[in-house]
Design brief:
- The protein contains 15 helices and 17 strands.
- It has helices at residues 12-25, 38-45, 49-61, 100-110, 130-144, 158-172, 186-198, 213-221, 239-248, 270-282, 340-351, 356-367, 370-396, 422-431, 462-480; strands at residues 65-68, 72-75, 116-117, 181-184, 204-208, 225-229, 231-232, 236-237, 251-256, 286-290, 315-320, 332-335, 402-403, 411-415, 434-435, 437-438, 451-455.
- A seven-stranded mixed sheet has the order 4-12-11-10-9-5-6, with helices on both faces. A four-stranded antiparallel sheet has the order 13-14-17-16. A two-stranded antiparallel ribbon has the order 1-2.
- Helix 2 (38-45) packs across helix 3 (49-61) and helix 7 (186-198) packs across helix 8 (213-221).
- It is globular and about 80 Å long.
- Bound molecules: pyridoxal-5'-phosphate.
Length: 481
């Protein structure tokens, strides 16, 4: 093990470079890890701050580390993977879901606690907020023990709806009316209510491709048809393609994640979100926007939901605390000034109201400032995990493998060599104790045969390293077969 030796003739800054380099080479410092601050390193190595600075600048010149404004120095990715290809344009008709049996098996994998969980998008578990949520729940139980056991109102606890409206103001600078928010059982029920409010059996719903499989299951479950709209891996929905789809088919609603999508992890640029709203107004088509990841951009920028970007009233925004705080609480919301009465009626019909104790707890969690502080810690943790996973993929997967470049969230979308079948990889991975999400379930027409989605939304461990390495080896074998 290297250490700084002041008797040695080698310049001290060179010794610091070797020390850091050795730590990177042996994997003690991994891509995405933050280096000790200049002051800390100077104290621990017993050298001056200018010496450490000189070493870090040289390491940066060698492209082994990078500086990030206001944050410090970080170990760089060694491998830069090429970005996934744009999703091919959909020349097919609207279709029903074509992969139900595979979807069942994927959920079996997701629900199996013994597997390394690379198949489930569960970002908040990368840095659980358990302690603070527990403290909020204890406060609620001591203040409102009996009340919290009762029914919440149909639209949900007013203090929580106020906090959600405040959060939109505080983060995106927009005004949401608490009275136009309905608390739901997670984002999934918000999507169900939204879809039921605006479309019925046989209607055509446009989705981005690839898209979140839960949306496809909903569309299928309600007897509707999905038509896919091409996306670009860096900017999301391709608007000219959307226009063509709207001209070709009687689309009742579009279900898009414009702020941060799953599985691509892209944010549509604001000018495109504004144009999207104009196009949908022109065609009088409803937008159901899935905003459950909107708070999870790595850079902390909070994209403004399309709801607030124009005059089109026929928009329902669906949010959730599942991705940011506690999926088990099952608390999400639907926001729409225009559709709120339909939403209220459907919420009452489907589930009366949502869990009261969880709503009160989350209201306290937000009001105390703990939620905002938690998001501040969660985002960089997710970014570090994303970088680690991308670097491992670069090292261990075949060189033709391409990956998405997510700007937030907790998943990477991988394009594997063309002859690798993701369903086969999924089966092999399950047998090896790893869950993954095969590409086929992200398209109603099963078009992503050689794609897979990997999650980095859990505390990173040696098991994660081993699982990604194993997948890389298996993909290489399948590619050669
Ligand atoms: C894009 C997207 N929307 C909605 C949901 C559902 O969220 P919830 O767990 O709050 O129901 C998920 C969950 O994976 C998701 O990825």
């Amino acid at each position: 093990m290297l250490s700084i030796d002041k008797q040695d003739d080698t310049y001290l800054y060179r010794q610091v470079i070797d020390l850091i380099g050795e730590n990177i080479d042996t994997g003690t410092l991994r891509p995405g890890d933050r280096l000790p601050s200049l002051r800390k390193m100077s104290q621990s190595a017993g050298v001056s701050i200018p010496t450490v600075r000189q070493a870090y600048i040289e390491l940066e010149r060698q492209r082994r580390i990078e500086s990030r404004p206001q944050s410090g120095f970080y170990v760089r990715h060694r491998a830069i993977n090429p970005i996934v290809s744009p999703a091919p344009s959909s020349d097919g008709q609207p279709v029903c879901l074509n992969c139900r049996p595979l979807m069942e098996r994927v959920y079996e994998g997701i629900n199996n606690p013994n597997l390394v969980p690379l198949g489930i998008a569960n970002p908040c578990m990368a840095k659980p907020a358990a302690k603070n949520l527990h403290r909020s729940m204890k406060r609620i139980m001591s203040r409102a023990e009996e009340r919290s056991l009762g029914y919440a109102s149909t639209l949900g606890e007013p203090s929580l709806r106020r906090q959600i409206a405040y959060h939109y103001l505080d983060t995106a600078g927009v005004q949401a009316q608490p009275d136009h928010i309905a608390i739901t059982n997670g984002g999934q029920e918000a999507l169900l209510i939204a879809l039921s409010a605006v479309a019925s059996t046989g209607d055509v719903i446009a989705v981005e491709t690839p898209t979140y499989h839960g949306m496809l299951e909903l569309i299928d479950g309600l007897g509707m048809l999905a038509v896919e709209v091409e996306t670009c891996p860096e900017e999301g929905v391709v608007l000219d393609e959307l226009r063509r789809t709207l001209e070709a088919y009687p689309v009742k609603a579009c279900m898009f994640s414009t702020t941060l999508s799953n599985p691509l992890g892209v944010t549509m640029p604001e000018r495109d979100r504004r144009r999207l709203v104009q196009i949908l107004e022109e065609f009088d088509t409803v937008l159901i926007e899935d905003d459950v990841y909107g708070d999870l951009r790595f850079d902390g920028y909070r994209p403004i939901p399309a709801q607030f970007l124009g005059d089109h009233a026929r928009i329902i925004t669906c949010g959730s605390f599942s991705k940011t705080a506690a999926p088990g609480y099952r608390v999400g919301w639907a926001y729409s000034p225009h559709f709120i009465e339909d939403i209220r009626r459907l919420k009452r019909a489907f589930s009366c109201s949502s869990g009261f104790l969880q709503q009160l707890t989350l209201a306290d969690f937000l009001a105390s400032g703990d939620y905002a502080r938690h998001l501040k810690m969660l985002r960089p943790e997710l970014q570090r995990n994303a970088e680690r996973m991308a670097a491992l993929i670069g090292e261990h997967f075949p060189s033709e493998t391409r990956t998405s470049k997510p700007v937030g969230g907790s998943v990477l979308w991988l394009e594997l060599p063309e002859n690798v079948n993701a369903e086969e990889l999924f089966d092999d991975a399950i047998a090896a104790g790893i869950s993954v999400a095969p590409g086929q379930i992200f398209s109603p027409a099963n078009r992503y045969d050689n794609f897979v989605r990997l999650s980095f939304g859990h505390p990173w461990s040696d098991k994660t390293d081993d699982a990604v390495r194993w997948l890389g080896r298996r993909v290489s074998e399948l590619a050669k077969a």
